[in-house]
Amino acid sequence: MSEELSFRDARARRDEPRSESDGRLSDDPGESAWELADPPPTPSPPPDTDAGRGGVMDFAGLPGFGDADDEPSGPGLDIGRFVRGVWKRKLMIASIGLASTVLFVLLALMIQHKWMARCTLITQTHQDQFVLSDREPFKPQDYDLSTFVDTIKLPSSLDEAMKRSGVSVLRRTMAAAIETQIGKDSKIFAIKVTWDDPRLAATIANNVAEIFVENSRAIRRKDARETYDYYSGQLREARGEIVKINDELVAFEETHNISSLDDQVGVLVSELSRLESEYKIRVAEAGAMRAAQARIQTLMTQEPEMIVTESRYRSPLKQRLTDYQWELQQALSRYTEENPKVVKLQKQIQILEQLIAQSNDETAPENTYNLNPKREELSLRQQELVDQTKVVEAQADALRKTLDGMRTDLNGLTVNRSGYQQLSSRMGDMELLEANLVTRVEEARLAMLRNEAGFRILEQAQPPLEPEPSMRKLVAVAGVVLGGGFGLFLALVLEFFDPLVRTGRDAADITRCDLVLEFQEAPDEQSALVDPTRPSQPVSALFRAFTNALSAKLGAEQWRSLAVTSVEPESGRSLVAVNLARALALKQERALLIDADLRVDAGTRPTRLCDLHRDGPGMHELLQDAASLTEALHDTPMPNLRVIGPGTTSDDTGLLLLGRREMRTLAAQLGRDDLHVIYDLPPLDCAETVIEAAAAIGNLMLVVRSAHTKRAALKDLTAALTDRGIEIRVVIVTEIPDELLSGKPTFPPRLTPRQRRRLQRQREKEERDLEINVA
Length: 775
What we know:
Helix content: 40-55%
Distance between the termini: 38 Å
Structural class: alpha/beta
Mean pLDDT: 77
Number of strands: 14
Shape: flat
Low-confidence stretches: 1-75
Largest sheet: 8 strands, mixed
């Protein structure tokens, strides 16, 4: 925003007299602003310009207001971008393709004719197998055809082929000239040699075929020799092992005397089983006796050691009371309690108890104690069980020792039998191995003596009559394809690593914003400012649609306060803010435009774009509490639009005021009012306080200029805003060329220089005629 915007043409068109035939009202500009016809069916995007650049900008159509096919599909791979990039670099691609074609044509002219000779061979798959035993016969090592074919290009084979053919070339030259052709299901294959001499090609092919057969025979003979040597060595080792095992077996029998080992083991096992059963019986009897002892001990603890056999009283009353109680007990055993005798005895007992109580007779009885005979009987039984238990336990212990000894003897016999059986088994295995090795050695010797190749030459090579088809045309076509492909690849790489943002799709991929607008680059003859006297112009219709899109996407309350900023200067930020405010005023909605760009060299101010040419208190004074909000408000020619200017600034230190507490207080105060507040903030790369001011406002509109804003800067700025919790509500990409628009253009195509000069002459003529009429 370092230069003044010129809207002379737009104002001249606005001041022109309008006739009724033009479909516009000429009396009241406000009437033309509010009594509007329906918008055109396909509105064009609004233009945008940076207030500091001397030109005017055009805007592309709003997403969601055109055809469904024109809407972007969201972030992702933009194929159209790469197609446009390739078309833009078509001259470079054509130049690279032409140079490559010329180079490959020269190479094609240098290609010489080649002659190909073919020698055909056949594979012999059936061979007689010699069988010397009832086991499977010996099978020699089997290689597939591809393995034998690989021996053709061994260094030794190539050297031998050159020696026999009388040629002296590099090994890689000879290897490149030899080619093998193997059929899929056929046993016939061919060796082809391509050379610049037909006779020499046939000679080399035949020599290579002979060397191939010799190599296959040598490989098979070597395999048979290795197999023979291997089995012979194994046979010698097996025979030595048999002698060793035989000596060990004889010594083992003499040492352990195991001639009747099986009978001894059988007797010990049967006797051990019988004694094991008897031992378990003795253990069970001892357990039962100990349980009986425990029960007798329990009964003995319940019986008293001494019992009373006789009680004598010296008191006659108590003696009589005792006699009556005895008689009462005898009577109750015979009669009921209602019996007269029982009743009489109870009465007598009661009288005697009263007399005893009154006489205080405390005479104790004289008891006679004797040993409890039942306890003596239990004690005698317990002693007998103890003696029997000891006897049974002694018998069980003797049986256990006997069993341990028999188990030791049985383990020793088992170990000896295992060793004897192992030696016998080893002897049998080694004898069987010796027989098998003898058979294998004889079969390998016979296979070595046969020395079969497995291949034979079916048809020798003859000198070819015609050369091979030339590769010249193919090389020329390859030059065109490779050159064009490289040029195309280079164009795609250049487009992929393009550091600048060019379309709305690029901005959507980086910011992940749901609402991204593309603003077309406006022709010089078109106005980029919303004119209230011309509400039907493309810019006015577009910004009205833009406000409707914001209300539909965000809701009317979510963007009451909106901060308009850009990544860097000269992106059309101020003009977007002014047009948005004027579009809201055209819809009879109260709008407040605040110029919060407190830099000194900020270019054309929004107050100038709103036809307000007087200075006064503004944001600078508001943030310093040097003026009230009423003093800072300024009216504009539009009834519903008011502005707050930047105020008086002498240096760029006013940017620091945007990060102060007063800025958050002012944003909160204006956010409570029923009006739309639009803040024109400085670019985000000016100072950190701009981000703080955006955070205080809450809603952010980011302006990005096509072919001017860098992708890295936009990505870093988006990450910084996300970390601060600032949500980007909408992204506007300005100055998009006509060929990069994703939707329909807002403005007609740019005029050619000739058409522009003709239009300029026509306008000058109309101005002269107007001046003459006024005069």
